[in-house]
Amino acid sequence: QVQLVESGGGLVQAGGSLRLSCAASGRTFSNYAMGWFRQAPGKPREFVARISESGGIRDFADSVKGRFTISRDNTKNTVSLQMNGLNPEDTAVYYCAADPFYDDLLRASAVSYWGEGTLVTVSS
Questions:
Q1: Which residue, among 110, 54, 121, 59, has the nearest Cα to 86 in the 3D structure?
Q2: Above pLDDT 90, what percent of the chain?
Q3: pLDDT for res 85
Q4: DSSP strands (E only) in 1-124
C-alpha cells in the first residue's frame, strides 16, 4: 500500500499562485510514477499532470500547460504541483496519485493509489 497526503490547497484570487504538496509513505517512492488529478463539482476526475519515477519525464493537460509545473523529491518522498496564473476554472479538489506505471496516470480509472484531496478555490 501507498499512503498519500496532500497539502497546500486554499483560496486564491484569479492570477495568483498556489503550491500543492503530496507526501508519500508505505512503499519505495522512487518505484512509482506520480501525478495530480482534479475534480470540479459535477464533473469527472481529470488528469492534470504526471511525472515519471526518476522525474525525467513530465506531462501536462493542455488546460494547464505553461501555467503548472510538477516536481518530485525522491529523497523526501514528496511530489509538488506549482500552479501559477490560476483562474476560476481551476477550482476543484486536487488529488495526488501514484502508480507503478507512468501510462496509467492519464486515466483516473487506472490509478492505483489516491490521496484524499485538497480543495483549491480561485475567486474572480
A1: 121
A2: 98
A3: 98
A4: 3-7, 10-13, 18-25, 33-39, 46-51, 58-60, 68-73, 78-83, 92-99, 113-114, 118-123
